[in-house]
Protein 1
Amino acid sequence: MSERLQCSLLLESKISPNTAYQKQQDTLIVWSEAENYDLALSFQEKAGCDEIWEKICQVQGKDPSLEITQDPIDESEEERFEEMPETSHLVELPACELARLEEIADLVTSVLSSPIRREKLALALMSEGYIKKLLQLFRTCEDQDNREGLHHLYEIVRGVLFLNKATLFEVMFSDDCIMDVVGCLEYDPALVQPKRHREFLTKTAKFKEVIPITDSELRQKIHQTYRVQYIQDIILPTPSVFEENFLSTLTSFIFFNKVEIVSMLQEDEKFLTEVFAQLTDEATEEGKRRELVNFFKEFCAFSQTLQPQNRDAFFKTLANLGILPALEIIMGMDDLQVRAAATDIFSYLVEFSPSMVREFVMQEPQQADDDDVLLINLVIKQMICDSDPELGGAVQLMGLLRTLIDPENMLAPTNKTEKTEFLSFFYKYCMHVLTAPLLANTAEERKDLPEETTKVNPVCPDNFQTAQLLALILELLTFCVEHHTYHIKNYIMNKDLLRRVLVLMNSKHTFLALCALRFMRRIIGLKDEYYNRYIIKGNLFEPVINALLDNGTRYNLLNSAIIELFEFIKVEDIKSLIAHIVDNFYKALESIEYVQTFKGLKGRYEQEKDRQSRGLSRYRRDARSLEDDEEMWFNEDEDEDEAEYMGTKKVKESEDKENLPKRTPTASFKFTFSHSAGAANGNNSASNKPASSASPARCSNTYFPHCKCLTNVDCKTIKALVLNSHI
């Protein structure tokens, strides 16, 4: 007998048309059914949560794309709220006294679960100027070292922040109150000793005006934004699942402050002009310039909060003021911090408009004689010279270069020549800078190494940081192979670049050898016969096959990648490469039997030979009529005159078939020429030789010159030779 699963009802709740349901984190639905009675449904899968949410929205006639079904006011509470006199709408607050701090803390904590009670409490706090009274009590408690009172004030201030009301934030974050708010949040009851956030904000964190800000409102807004951001990121604990939306208004408060700061700075052209002037002035002190660059970095970071159209206007303003020429100057400086900040600014510009950056750099050669000072070359050099052992900056710069040379974002209809012009510029002025480390580390001889070491291994990029850099360069070159068909092809051929890259197959760093192999794999993947001929002529499979053989029987990523390369050639049936591999390397590879790749290549090779042979045979079948006529002549016993007449007629019919192949009685073929030198001179050597002295005819297969087959020559063949000599 099978046991039936016994299910018990844990919760039954009717969907009320007026209850505010809220979906959180894709797997949670929360709501309140009565005062101080909150419920939550948690789902293991998002699909289950979405299904129930759609049912709730269907009952309430709401859009399922919303995360809250309606204004969070319970029907019964709303009716009571409307029936009360106006003065009764507010929560009755206890007197703001030291003795009642615990009562106040309990009240603030209790209303957080009810949206309508939160609203009422917020109104009460605003109407009575309660916040400033509480902060006065904080000063009193701190002066008296009243830890119990300070702990209650922590709970009160934290709860007021969770009321999520912008009107309260305006009071709490004003210049008069914000430091006292921070002070209250230092006394977390869970901590043995209070934090020292005010000390950090007033003494450690210093506000530096790189250029004096005359607008007092702007200065106040900058101070306020920094401090509120500090409260959100550092002081307040990470909210729980039920609290995650309590601080959404705080996030919006910071967001709109940043928008206002950027707008005010953007409108102050005098201020920005002065910043650019000092930034590019050679007389500016290094410390001052560092501060200016860091200011611009933060300025650009704030701009990310703007709406798209406002962000466009912001970056256009910077472009008009000369941000790119300024970056060109500061990225060429020796100060690492300045260069790092300039790189961050450059990344914002590239992300905003690659075309704007490309347009600027293409105008540079007309203004500068030295390629080294071009902006893109400065970026490449900074990538190459990154001092970080993990090359974090180099990875960032490589991503920016990739964006700039990506044809996918060069397809603007307003400028159809951008792709051609920029790629021509890049390969003429910048590619040699990018490949310089690669070419330097893959030279045939390294003078800094002992002679015996050079003979064993012509390259030794064994330094891990160097290997990482070469891997980044190869990644970018591989991208070029995929997306720059014409320009990169010419560069590879002219510099014999693939040969130099494949030298890295000797590296002890497997990831670098794999990068070199990937570069070759992308080239072969194009199935371009121009590349194939280059590979065959240079015998460029040799270092790959040597790496495979040196790897031995180890089953690793390098082994699999090399096998995949040859498997691709086999599957795609790249005939020229198959013939080259089998002709030159099959003896070294035929012992590898754990995969059928190389036997498959041999099979493809043999199939192609057979196909060519059959094609040649079909071509020669047109000459069979001549053979049939000869057979008829052998079987007829007629006089010599008639035979001679028939032979002459035969010559006239076959004058246009001078070079057609002729099949011998053993089904092999050879080419015969009716107007041979012997016939023209009247030689009759074949008729003068006895049958026994006729030498065997060798197969004249011009496609396979190594063919050794011989044909047996019988009397009919001799008679045919006599006939031909008479003709």
Protein 2
Amino acid sequence: MASSPCGNSNFDSGLEIKTRSVEQTLIPLVSQITTLINHKDKPKKSERTLAAIHRVGQAVNVAVGRFVAVGEAIASENQELKDEMGQACFEARRAGDAIAQLTDVGSAMQSQSDSQVSVFSDRTGMVKAARLLLSSVTKVLVLADRIVIKQIITSRNKVLITLDKLERVSTFQEFVQIFSQFGNEMVEFAHLTGDRQNDLKDEKKKARMAAARAVLEKCTMMLLTASKTCLRHPDCESARINKDAVFHRMRCALEQVIDIVTEARSCGESKVLPTSIYNSIKDFKSSVECLRENLYSLTPQNMASQLESLVERTEDFTDSAYTSHEQRQAILALCQLVRQDTQQLVHAWAEAQSAHAKEATEEMEVAVLKTCQSISDLRRKLHKVAVGRASDLLKVHGEHLPLRALKAAGAEGNLEGVAESSRTLTEQKEQLVETCRLLCHISGTEPLEITCIHAEETFHVIGPQIISAAQTLALHPSSKIAKENLEVFCEAWESQLCDMALLLKEINDVFEGRRDDKRPYLSLPRPGKHSANLKTAKAVKLDAEEQTSMAKLGLELRLLSSDVDSEVEKWEEQEHDIVRHSQSLASMAYSMYLFTRGEGLLKTTLDLFRQAEVLSEEGLQLCSSFRTFFSQLVDEEKSVLMTQIEKLVTLCQQLQMGAKTPVQGKTATFQKVDSSIQMSRNLMTVVLSLIPICNKLHKKYKSERTSLGSPQDWRERQDASPRVKDEASVSSKNTNGFGVKSMEQHMAALNLLESK
């Protein structure tokens, strides 16, 4: 074979892969092609090895043919992609044929008399064919991914149309009918966007998507009660303002989702993330440390500019009316110290350059260390101020006194009382908004910065909505729907405070090095429904004697939480659903442990029962992830594990029912607390037993899986495309997603021959 059957190709190989499913689909193919190319470097091979290589090459070609059949079926259903998909499929088929031809060793074997034959002299041809195959397969996958984006856009458009209808309804009967349709469309949209969020590679986009989806989730209930209130009181201006704000926020969230999946930016999203103090400090410190290796990596003017920009951002702390005099003076003193140390560094730097030194002098090394130390001290101080203020605010506002006052004044028809409580709530809102801004500065990761911004925007928006809902109730104190509407908005506020507490824990974890960037973002809002059934429950605190009796149980829960964290950190794939849900459970269990000590963010028994209910729901989601994982196992492995899963499901259901069961009296409440913590402990014990087993099996199956496909992603996409009915079509039952089960077997045979 003197020349490649492929020839040259100008096919675009610089495609950006934005989703994990596409990336994971390509990894096995890259591995297989690399193996074939590497065999080109070994001119002498046994007949058995040559036969195995031949089978692999043929299997690749057959698999590519089936893969192309799926791509062509997708193209026939989506005319806008037909030309591009057709070209990509043509190139993939051509590359597959080339690889089959290059690995066809039959003629070469017959022409050699020696038992050791020399083949595969055309390494260049194999490399070209491999590049073309990878490029074209990637193009097919990326084009198919556009179908997923199209589905999300289509779903969003359906939601928008129904949303417009809801906004214009004039009767309750019409509203109920349209809202039912709206609910179904929102469920579909939630599934599509949830899958997309989990599939995104970019952590910032994932955080933005999670924030937008959280807004939609919360606003759906707000939209229901606000619309009903407006229909009941059509002439009430505050009810109309309340309703309009919900519809506007939902539309903005829907647009943000589309901006993320299409990578477009609407007018409202034109701004970029502001540079945080954390990033400024990191960049400045990096510049300083670079001088050790290269004295000419930047100029003194650049360093001075970086420092002044950093110091300027600390004004968000020093100019705040809520920063104490002592804190302000400490921050200013540290800024001045950084300036002085930087000036000494610049002086030593200039002397080293004058002496034509090739590397940092001893004096300069000392100056670098002092500058890095002072900038680290400044970062620690800013972190302490922001986190301390947030913790204090959460303690002060944990009793929700302004909300209670607003509800009471509204129910009494007391407009003056509503106005007075509104001023208190507005001041509280301003404090929380500013605190979120400070947390954003020191959060430590871009996804957490996005979550801080989301929290800031949520407080900023919900505050006025609560006030307008309270005004409506004050004007119509006997209206049950107006009272329910105010209750829903107050629950959203309380929920956001809980989410802020979780966000605070995440920021501390990152600062102390306990978590990396791939920490699941527990700070994102949870549905208000968790507390809906506990409205009439009385919130009480444990006394010292009760805390003592709870101490042993709480300690066991803390140890289990720590053990679960340790086990999930051993997983290579930190984005796996099992890992994410297990980390969430560990975080919640730790909060319950702190409650038994009279510490942490769960202040009352009502807080604990809400946490128990959320924990049980997270546990059920983990059960679902376990079941999905177990579907890959053989019956022998599955039988033992499924017993544990059923046990876990039962515990979750018991914990959920117990948390929802109302109790009266101190003794009954204490017994419910004891039961909730015991069941949580038992639940975590089962989770701890399952995680290491799953990790071991996950590694085993990951190492064995060398097929071309990503079955879950492609099976979902094939649902939207016509099935190819002949034998060359893809059958998920027989072909492991892409019809390359035989390739997996051939690769195993090839590896076995190599090891011998």
Protein 3
Amino acid sequence: TFQQKKKIQVLKAMKLSFLFPLLFLVPLLASCAEKKQVYIVYFGEHKGDKAFHEIEEHHHSYLQSVKESEEDARSSLLYSYKHSINGFAAELTPDEASKLEKLEEVVSVFESHPRKYETHTTRSWEFVGLEEEETDGDDRRQKHDVDDRFRVGRNFLKKAKHGDGIIVGLVDSGVWPESRSFSDKGMGPIPKSWKGICQTGVAFNSSHCNRKIIGARYYAKGYENYYGQFNVTANKDFLSPRDPDGHGSHTASTAVGRRVNGVSALGGFAMGSASGGAPLARLAIYKACWTKPNHEKVDVNICLAEDMLAAIDDAIADGVHVISISIGVADPLQPFSKDGIAIGALHAIRRNIVVAASAGNSGPKPGTLSNTAPWIITVGASTLDRAFIGGLVLGNGYTIKTESITAIKMDKFAPLVYAANVVVPGIALNDSSQCLPNSLRPELVNGKVVLCLRGAGSRIGKGLEVKRAGGVGMILGNTPAVGNETAVDSHFVATAAVNPTVVEKILDYIKTDKNPIAFIKPGKTVYKNQPAPFMTGFSSRGPNMVDPNILKPDITAPGLNILAAWSGADSPTKMSIDQRVADYNIYSGTSMSCPHVAGAIALLKAIHPKWSSAAIRSALMTTAWMTNDEKKPIQDPNGLPANPFALGSGHFRPTKAADPGLVYDASYRDYLLYGCSVGFTGIDPAFRCPIKIPPGYNLNYPSISIPNLDRKVTIKRTVTNVGDGNSTSTYVFSAKAPFGVSLKAKPSVLTFNRIGEKKWFKIVVMARKDKMLNVTEKGQYQFGWFSWTDRYHVVRSPIAVSLA
């Protein structure tokens, strides 16, 4: 090239004494100046007038316009998105990306990197009212009193045909096809609408697809471009749809796994029947997440935007009805135009494919949500009523129930020490209590129980460090930042997990007793543990940082200590030192709550095949639980009532969602119009933003969020009757206004005479001068709700308002 020739001329002109340093320096400077990175160039929707080869040539033409040669242009292309999403992923320099972004027809250009997205890493279906009758004597599930909600649940499952005919696409880390959760025994033929393939690869052939797993693909071009050619030893993964670490198998079986009797986690915990929400729905696997090379599998998977977009593009073309994505952005400020999941999901919505995605695991800090686009159903994580109760006894007689799924037992009391008092010299003060690798002194730990605090390092890693140092037990203490909920793990020493209040009591005992001792009792599975549900501390919280006019998350579902299928290539702890194998494992995260909702969506799709994605979202949101099994408000881990920035509309109730009465519907065009309010434009060539753009809060959404209210705002909404079509239905408005504001509906009574009839209304939200907030409360969000009620239905929506 011209630049390279110029550099050679300069070198020749230099004196010999400077030649060798410059020969080293110039290539380094050149590599810095011309460093390439993968960028995604997004054009919006396809016009539909080009064949696949024409689309790819069209994309090549853009690359040729910024590359020096045709060969360079073709070699730089990773993906050409041809089905629904119009765009491509390619290696570009920042300058080349900038040139393409300036083109009028380009919606956005955004850089891909491995830290942008991450995975958000049973009794649960019975807990929400979906439970089948006992089928045979081999079902060893513990029996409980059967109430009306379970009878309703059985009827609901029968009506939905257990999801038969619905295809759920999982974008994740693959699947372990040998799991009994993916058996096709007794299933009918593959739906005729299916257009997908069974892609073969390492340890995965066509026989691994069946009438349950009807399709499987994998996407590694972006991953290999970043990390180099796939290396089995370094990657500890399979270049195929096979799941190496359990995450994908767990989420897939939670959503649509077959009913399997007599399963449990390692040690016999949670013994019973495992089933997905829609056990007869079909499964399509789209592997776009991979293990980090030369890292433990317990580290978060790598999911690159270009690979995920290719997966979603194929899923749309293959004919899935639902897409479940337990992945999200690490940056909550990522705009929709530069968010691959948001872009892919919008194209799915146009084909009436419902997309559910996890809210993220960055809570309880406010403003940490992922997947906040209003066309995505965003799912937070709460608990269920199953616990694994063990015990901790101190030498002073203090006894407390704890949670544990560690089967290792202590024979007797052992000396108790605090990790910060037994660390090797040189450990930083902030890390001294954390039981990080090689931090404990064996001569001070051997034969003892160690109190380790959560924070830095993995929970499993702390137990490993205690074992390495010769300890016989570990008390894993939550810090105030973590909160009260305790995730359980299959540790390597006897373990008791405790909340911050108990930590303080243990520390006080260690300080005041000359010879502190402790005894840890192993855990046992306990059902109907109250109160349940409550919100987990890790579930990401609102407000929505991309657009505070949309209240997120939408809903919450079980995500703590969920039992589901696991990979045969991974241990329960996901640590290489752990040689144990489990067919089913307990795992936590919004990654686990998302497929619960995806399974419920599949059932609703089966009952109401013509409902839109927005109608299904509305049905789930407006029928959700706001109270726990003690008939009190669902709580945060701190014991206070959870607000909509934690639980959205509440804890999902699939059986109620089948008959919501009214729904807040929205179309693909409505979302394009909404995009005008947040600068997400140019997506569809057939759509142009109006001169006067409506505010984002007027999108027909089942919740309301108003940031910085100054005096008065009028909200517009439309509801569609999906209830009883044989008689007239009259709905009456009621509300509990957020503190400091008033709510008034116009009209306050809606009457419907037929199914499908629509009625509009306005809600006037006004700041109340008679209840002015304190200076410290201004700008803080206040919460309330409003509802439409007839004789049978309660159509309830949350509202969040902050005053300017």
Protein 4
Amino acid sequence: MPLSVSLSPLHPLPPNPSLSPLSLPLTPPPQPLSLTSNTQTFSLRHRPLKIQSLDAAQPYDYESKIAADFHSSNKLKIAILGFGNYGQFLARTLVRQGHTVLAHSRSDHSHVARQLGVSFFADPNDLCEEHPEVILLCSSILSTELVLKSLPLQRLKRNTLIVDVLSVKEFPKNLLLNLLPNDFDLICTHPMFGPQSARNGWNGLYFVYEKVRVGTEESRISRCEKFLNIFAKEGCKMVEMSCSDHDKYAAESQFITHTIGRVLNELKLESTPINTKGYEALLDLVENTAGDSFDLYYGLFMYINKALEMLERLDLAFEALKKQLVGRLHGAVRKQLFGNAEGARIKLESYLAAQHGTNGAAASASSSKGMRFQNVDPSIYKRAQIVKHLDDDSKLKIAIIGFGNFGQFLAKTIVRQGHTVLAYSRTDYSDVAQKLGVQYFSDADDLCEEHPEVVLLCTSILSTEKVLRSLPVQRLKRNTLFVDVLSVKEVPRNLFLQNLPPYFDILCTHPMFGPESGKNGWNSLPFVYDKVRIGSDESRVLRCDRFLDIFAQEGCEMVEMSCSEHDRHAAGSQFITHTMGRVLEILGLESTPINTKGYETLLKLVDNTAGDSFELYYGLFMYNVNAMEQLKRLDRAFESLKQQLFARLHGFHRKQLFENADESQDLQEILLLPKLSENGTLPASSSHALNNQND
């Protein structure tokens, strides 16, 4: 049977102006609910509608107050002790994050503090009575003990968190444990960066810490985490590590970094218009370490067990490198002295051997001739057609003379750009050449008969003259372009002008990068060149430009500069760079889990220079007029730094000796002084004696 349900509409009461909304009667009049069927009708009434409870109205800024309370609960009151360069550096970030920062220092930094939004206290008692939650020790290594002992700890809350930021960790850990009451919390930290190395932010930089002693109460654990979160929020790499492990990994690497930085600072290195990556690294290292006080460096020296041993190792490495150079120089002089006699002996032996072996030599001549050219799979040379949109005329046939490490490095890019590359070297590199898509020749005559448009000399500085004189240049086209890539420029320029016929074009270049520094591409790396002699024909000018375009296409910074100007800027800086790289290589530096930016710089420097041959370094020494003077200056700088350290050490030891003697003298004088009487006056006899002394 169908059942219909009807609900009468509700009619709210009209508003009464005399009543507030909350005082209105909220019980509507009862309305009937009818249930109708064919047989009977049921009439029911609603139960009265009643509001049982209603939230009280909240203040309009309730939510903002809740947010502010949550925000302030994550903020700390931090007192910085030692408001010098580093303390101010940390304060900027602490204030920016919303923490309350107080500061105390022996020097008056109130003006700087005011600018930073920091409350400065000249009296540590006043600061401690503010009850900071965290005491952040930013004093030097040398003054930390004195600062701690002078701190009125009794005015602090007994559960205050004490944090240090020193570069060594075992020393402050022991100091804090020995000098502070057991109810203070302790964290030993090392932000492994400073104002210079972190001038662009802290992101990705190491922050090492050890929770030496943190109470078990939730509030103390939370406070510790809030403090560490200051650095985590800035993107630091947070590394929890024991103080002993930190010192094992970091202390020695920091000492080496600061030592090298200070030695180079003594040399007064200057930037040039054509800095190499390695030289840029040295300049950055000087900048990063020069801003730190000598107290920091001396502290590293004093509180690192192996500091003296590391100085000695550095000294020995430098001496070993000088011996290598002098030994090589001695050998070259001997060769010049006795070379003529030796050459005559060799010629005589060759003549006698030729007389006995004429028939055998003739028989093998034809077969050996066939082996001079190493055949390669012809499909490899299709790489020259990769760049379809360029005209074939824009591609060059380039012969690389000297197909060692650097020659192969250049060949990869030249082939990739679609140029035809030939190669010749004293060593057999035919397998490497085949993989790179390069035609390899074991005979220079065969290569020259291929008429390359460009002959690219990639030999060492020392062998360039010999190679140039041995080339059968008469087999080349008379307008061939000769190019060198040596690290010095006056030497090859003069060699070319003296040994090549005047109809050859000459371009002296220096790609200021190598396989290591250019492994991620050549973009923005300097390429220096001097058009020493280029024919006026349009084809020869165009060929020169096409060759230079190889490097321009890769994004190199193209710098046209005379050879003499290049050597004035670059030769000296390269020699210093390679010298430091080789000294550090002899030291055997190793990476650590927590490298500083400065130490990373040293490791990269070793990587960039270690791949280069000693011939390159010796060539920089031989053909740099100022090399000997630079070695002497480097030697003097290192000696000067050692003298500063040892003089400071001597002064520190004398101070200890004589302070003890002075204290003993003071004690003796105190014991000899007459005692005061009960009323606080001197006995008559003693007073009379003192008056006589004053007279």
